[in-house]
Please model this.
Amino acid sequence: MLELMPKEVPLQVDMFSGELVDNRTKKQKKIAQQQAQPQQIEMFSQREVAQFGVQANPKLPISLKTHIELAIEDRRSEAEIALEQQRTIEEHTYPLPWALPALEIDPSHEP
Model:
């Protein structure tokens, strides 16, 4: 990627204080700021964009009785669907306190 060097701002030395001062007008500063912003490039050439005699959004020749729907197909078997539902239910269910395995305390183990 080619990086352009920023243009130098023409500064002049102030006669009384000796500091560098930007003496450009507001309009010149605004133009310089706009030029420093990233510029959007065209995705398509003007010849490709402007086509005469072409309809922008053509209509499909569909009769009024035709229904177009998006069909969702699940190719899993009934057993696989039931197993997936069971796993989902188990993930979202808290275990009951009396169903947890009891923690065995080893008396020979010292902390």
Q: What stands out?
A: The chain is about 25% helix and 5% strand.
